[in-house]
Amino acid sequence: MRGATRRDRVRYWFDTTMSKGTPALIGWLALASAGLVLVVATAAVLVAPRDSDENGHWPGMVWRSLLRTLDPGTMGGDSGTGPFLALMLVSTIGGIFIVSSLIGVLTTGLEAKITELRKGRSRIVEHGHTVLLGWSEQVFTVVAELVEANQSKRRSCVAILADRDKVEMEDAIRARVGDLGRTRIVCRTGDPLKVADVELVSPGTARSIMIVTPEADDADTRVIKVLLSLGARTWGRSRPHVVAAVHDSANLPAARLAGGPSAHVIDADDVAIRLIVQSHRQSGLSQVCTDLLDFAGHEFYMRAEPALTGSTFGESLSAYELGVPSGLRRADGTVLLNPPMDTVIREDDEVIVLAEDDLLIRLAATPAPPVRESAITTATVRPPVPERTLMLGWNHRAPKIIELLDEFLAPGSALVVAAPREDPTDDLRPPANLKLGFTRAEPTERPSLESLDVGSYQRVIVLSEEGYDREHADARTLVTLLHLRDMEDALGDPSSPDPFAIVSEINDDANREIAQVTKADDFVVSEKLISLMLTQLSENRHLYDVFADLLDPAGSEIYLKPACDYLAPGVEADFATLIESARRRGEVALGYRLTARFHEPPGYGVVLNPDKTAPLTLSADDRVIVLAEN
Fold this sequence. Notes:
This protein is of the alpha/beta class. The protein folds into three domains: 13-119, Helix Hairpins; 130-261, NAD(P)-binding Rossmann-like Domain (Rossmann fold, 3-Layer(aba) Sandwich), CATH 3.40.50.720; 271-630, NAD(P)-binding Rossmann-like Domain (Rossmann fold), CATH 3.40.50.720. The chain contains 20 helices and 24 strands. The chain is elongated. It starts with 5 loop residues before the first helix and ends with a strand.
């Protein structure tokens, strides 16, 4: 085989240069233009000296040739000898080819650049932004919450990296979220599992990174892989905190190991199970949690209060004009929710305050209003009594729900599972306190429900049936709830208008509003609550310990207790008096729930952190929302 000739090398060099894209093409066109101008000007000097002298010799001819090359219409006013006009014509014709080629190159280059930008493959330059890795329905809830949280900020940015078309993501967010306020949403197309793609959203300068749980069968596996890819990245001096959730408790240790100390991984299944069980015991809990986690409602804030140094936690409950102290955060990071009332607040402590916004938290400038002693009552001791619970439907959470119910319900209680499948309880460990039974039934069919003697149960749990997509499962749940409500109305009497309480699991929060017609006592929308919790943690990493304490049975939890245990029914008082009544029991009153508004959106009767001096009259059926040990 013969060696490469000089011509081959030149041609290869030319091909390589041309392949560099639009800048190289523009460079070659500029070089061709310069060559044409110089050749024509030089030829005019040689073949038409008289015309050249009249037009400024060689420099003048260069200028005239340049004008005719760039603007063919300039030649219309030329006069002179034949050779001179012929050269100007050559310059004009050459200019037509060069300019048309330049326009074509620029158009092609601009279209290529627009296409590249639409693909979302350019690296963003941001600082202090929030990064979302992945895409699912969770994105819309998270973005909406971040927009709400950033209302008071002058400038904020949320960067989303997902293996989807950039324009489609932006259109979907605009359609589902609506007004973005002061928050800029920047979408990039890439695979969160690839370190190079993650760099497109500048994770090194981000304030926080949230891993969105994908809608796939191997969702937890993908979350763990993303955590590993983030761990493989070389970080600078400051590393953003990472938040994520897994839906299988068995994957939690691996996920936390992959995430390392800077990541907070939530066990979504455990949260959902605890909410279902707690809502079974006290309806309305999921709405309280939604309000606490929703940036449009009331949230927990941490702030130093030097003025309270040396005071006890009990004294701090009446120290705020706006906001309810709920606990303390020590300098070492230890969180104390509802600590003993005689706990002394240290100089380096932060007070955990429940408030609508951190800008609205302020200490009272005047002494606290007098307590209305006549309205304060003593709690009635209610020994636990056995209950009968009916669980309609079955999914992977059911075994743990049964396990938790066995811990919480009084000995002698009964739980009957009714589902359209073979008995799934055979493989479960026999409960200690519960009498567990099973019957095969189709919850969406009225005759099947009537055969269960629903009126003999005090509580009903409706689970989202496995084996169906989210919308179909929710549709089945709604049909079941409608049947139950109709059956309940038929069973009701003036002395007991609600024979049994209904707690239902809903997949999509959009279906909750539709489900209100069923008037179930509570709806647990676990996916939304997990999204809200992740968003809160992305804004303040220290809230992780607060939520962990709230969900831990060993610590203080949120309870909805009878209002008559705190205030005399029908007697006018105020929230300051309610706080004092709870304080005497070693509890923190966060608000109340009005029974008459149980089914009225958007609050469903829940009122958190009300005005401390506004008149307040509660009935015996209302509930007081407290932080308490039990």
